[in-house]
Amino acid sequence: MRIGIVCYPTFGGSGVVATELGLELSKRGHEIHFITYSQPVRLDLLNHNVHFHEVNVPEYPLFHYQPYELALSSKLVDMVKLHKIDVLHVHYAIPHAYAAYMAKKMLHEEGVRLPIVTTLHGTDITLVGSHPFYKTAVEFSINKSDAVTSVSQSLKDDTLRLFNITNNIQVVPNFIDLERHEHHFTDCQRAMMAEDNERILTHISNFRPVKRIEDIIRVFYNVQKEIPAKLMMVGDGPEKEPAEQLCLELGIEDKVIFFGKSHEIDKILCFSDLFLLPSETESFGLAALEAMASGVPVISSNTGGIPEVNKHGVSGFLSNVGDIEDMTRNALKILRDDTTLDSYKINSKSEALNFDIHAIVPKYEAIYRQALESCLSI
Ligand code: GMT
Predict the structure, then answer these.
(1) Does 14 sit in the ligand 1 pocket, CB within 6 Å?
(2) CA distance 376 to 378
(3) CB–CB of 3/30 below 8 Å?
(4) Ordered per-residue pLDDT tens for the chain, 378 residues
(5) Are the CB atoms for 228 and 198 separated by under 8 Å?
(6) How many Cα atoms sit within 13 Å of 346 on the Cβ side?
(7) Domains of the chain, CATH where assigned
(8) Please, which residues bridge with residue 319 across strands?
(9) H/E element holding 107?
(10) Separation between Cα atoms, residue 253 and residue 238, nearest integer Å
(11) 121 CB less than 6 Å from ligand 1?
(12) Which of 59, 168, 174, 239 has the greatest count of CB atoms below 10 A from its CB?
């Protein structure tokens, strides 16, 4: 199939999922066309099966807001016609599903049928999409998609609760390329980060308020009072500076390393002992799955789709949002001795097997085929 993929090209989870999906589909013989405003961060390999088409939005002083949806839907029409794209898969409803619907309608005028598959990722539903300013358009574009998927059962439930949905939503969980998370380096270079007797705790995110960055610092503060430890903070966003300030106030600035955005997530996870994800809401928690695939147990909140990924008492522990004391207790339970830590590491890796890319991607292929058949039969 020739498949168009629309996503946010940044470090966010939805862009990562879309990129990994496209790359895997290309390995399975499909021709992939990424259509977005810049080259996705994890897309470093363009070849005869993987193409990138940039959406340009010319600046014009009359516009207070530059019309990205308009530019995107025009580009979609042009690319679908030029490359004979069979199906369009849009990740993150806003504004992608809406722009895709407009493109579909324009193409229909020219006798071209284009099925649209929309994948809901989380904040497009829970934080942004359900806002009264967007809700009508988001609901419309979900209902008008030829197929809709959500990355967890929890997100599906949220979508049905928050919107008037007349379309079927299929749950297709996020996935992981376990091969990529096998550590191929003989030395993780752990010694560069911490002393032998120190545990390494890690957090990776976009440092938005929803990630509850302060909770991470406070859990770590409690942990390092009990056992020698270091904290690796990976990513960037509005909560990074307040977090650095808090570390200074607590006197733990020497024990916390702020990396900023990194392309070396696998190396960082390679020397990590524990991953912290205390989010306010999380439709899935891809970062937790990436940690587990690298054999890193997870201390997380029990919100949204996280319990579908992190199994309490197996791959780590779940606590109520904001329960710093419970998260501290659980972290210490895992980190207290090497034998216990090793058993959680093994468990995390085997839980990650449930999300093997080779088992999940065929589900998307089946959805594309179904959408294509039903769209052509109308
Ligand atoms: O977590 C973020 O803030 C980024 C956001 C995104 O859309 O890129 O992530 C969402 O999609 C990810 C991939 O499906 C999920 O793993 C994250 O849980 C979800 N984030 C939230 O629901 C807050």
Answers:
(1) yes
(2) 6
(3) yes
(4) 999 999 999 867 899 999 999 999 999 999 999 999 998 887 876 777 999 999 999 888 888 888 999 999 999 999 999 999 999 999 998 899 999 999 999 999 999 999 999 999 988 888 787 788 899 999 999 999 999 999 999 999 999 999 999 999 999 999 999 887 776 555 678 888 899 999 999 999 999 999 999 999 999 999 999 999 999 999 999 999 999 999 999 999 999 999 999 888 888 999 999 999 999 999 999 999 999 999 999 999 999 999 999 999 999 999 999 999 999 999 999 999 999 999 999 999 999 999 999 999 999 999 999 999 988 776
(5) yes
(6) 6
(7) 2-175+357-377 (3.40.50.2000), 179-355 (3.40.50.2000)
(8) 301
(9) helix 93-109
(10) 19
(11) yes
(12) 174
Give the whole-angstrom CA distance, residue 308 versus residue 153: 8
Omega of the bond leading into 61 within 30 degrees of 0 (cis): no
Single-letter amino acid, residue 309:
V
Best of 284, 302, 308, 364 to mutate for ligand 1, by most ligand atoms within 8 A of CB? 284
Ligand 1 centroid to Cα of residue 12, in Å, is 7
Ligand 1 binding pocket includes 283 (Cβ within 6 Å): yes
| Three-state DSSP string of 259-318 | EECCCCHHHHHHCCCEEEECCCCCCCCHHHHHHHHCCCCEEEECCCCHHHCCCECCCEEE
- CB-ligand 1 contact for 281 (6 Å cutoff): yes
CA of 110 to the centre of ligand 1 (A): 36
C-alpha 286/C-alpha 170 separation (Å) is: 18
Map tokens 């609760």 to a residue: 161
